[in-house]
Specification:
single chain; alpha+beta; 5-stranded mixed sheet; binds zinc ion
Length: 219
Amino acid sequence: MGALQGAVIPVTPFQQNCTILWDDGSKRAVVVDPGGDVDRILAAIDHAGVSVERIWLTHGHLDHAGGATELQDTLRERAGEPAGVPIEGPDQRDEFLLQGLEAQGRSYGIALRNVTVDRWLHEGDSVAFGGHRFDVLHCPGHTPGHVVFVNHAARFALVGDVLFQGSIGRTDFPYGDHAALIRAIAEKLLPLGDDFTFLCGHGPSSTIGAERRGNPFLR
Ligand SMILES: [Zn+2]
């Protein structure tokens, strides 16, 4: 097993950080949150010379999940394998969002497809690609089924729209829950340790320590 490598591709008009992670030895890879601009994601996969074996979703919002079905179909056609690349995550409590993507896309004037998840994730599950294991934390509040992927070996996490550099996820949706979001950050993310680096769904990466000290929403 080699080292964990990554590339971030901002996608959709929402500039969502689609992330490709791969093992630099085997070149086996995962794509996290392919919200759209699938052509650009495929170009980045080819540029890195990696083989995608998983698609992971942090939550069901269109800028994170809107391109997942198209990416899955394209990778299946390329590989010529009917089994294809499974979509793993989020927690099933986001199924209503994933099944509403087509309708939501119409209201934004963009063609989106609903997402059928191959494996729903739960708190305490683990997922893996290329020998790299990530533990799953259920962190609701931004959406009910939001999950975070944690790699303890590399002290690294993918937190989606839970926590940002200097900010936190929106909760002004009908299904949003500010108290639950703050509780998830306090009880699940901050205890990971100050040295943990995280990538978020929008904007620059940060560390748990920097947010513990400086994030105004966590005071
Ligand atoms: Zn979101």
